Amino acid sequence: MKRLLLLVLALVYTVVLAEYVVVVRTEPFSWVYVDGIYRGIADMNGVLVLTFQTLGQYKISVTKSFYLPFEGIVFVTQSGQIVVQAPLKRAGQLRVFSNVYPIEVYAEDYYLGTIRSVKDTVLVPEGSQYLTFKASGYQPQTHLVNVAYAKETAVNLTLVEETLTVNLKIEPKTFSPNNDWYQDATSFYIYLSKPADLTVNIMDKSGKTVWSKSLKGKAGTNVLAWYGTGVEDGEYVVEVVANTTEESYTARETVVVDRSVYTYTKEKILTVSAIGLGAVLLMLLISSSR
Length: 290
Description:
Oligomer: single chain
CATH architecture of the largest domain: Sandwich
Number of strands: 23
Helix content: 10-25%
CATH superfamily of the largest domain: Macroglobulin (MG2) domain
CATH topology of the largest domain: Immunoglobulin-like
């Protein structure tokens, strides 16, 4: 018994006092963060040794002036030493003069940052490369830019506003709002080329509006659900009207409400769930009686 107690104490001592070592190798004098908390500066050889008291997953971030930051995940699963290679790319600063802000900056689809005014700059990798500039509601532009290390490069842009276009898709085209938990609603997928005021009207075969909703639409995908509440079975016209200060665009599609088929999906789901719950409760009763 004494030997077992000593073994348990030794195990507890080992677990409690164990240190897990992570060695970060990066650029000299870089700042290192763990889960957003500053942990130290790499030495002249680009090395920083981190110790952890517990196992787990940690986010390692490394920054240095005029270098693109590094972010990575390390999994500490056992005692010993783990080496994290955190290479940093040399960079310069980019300033953007534009007729519109904010602007997102990309290098070959890699997001570099957002510029919200001429006061802002973003770090861009050193060298000649194609940069793409995007602003909501405007056509993106791509420019070949030569960026020098630790220097500022300026780009002048005149972005062209997108022409307002709307695309309406409905899924499912036929739905059955009969509370059987199968296709009880339908969704309107509305694409906008740029932000606009949206009005969605649903009209019956006589032209009477049975449902309407207004909202601020964003560039890209906008989704609305319709549950067919209070309408009869039949075909309806869905009309989407998009307006900006200078443009207007209308798109129409049809949708069918059909409650004639009841699938018993709700009853099937509830039955399976009840059987599963009953099985779990039975297992708990059996285990507790032993």
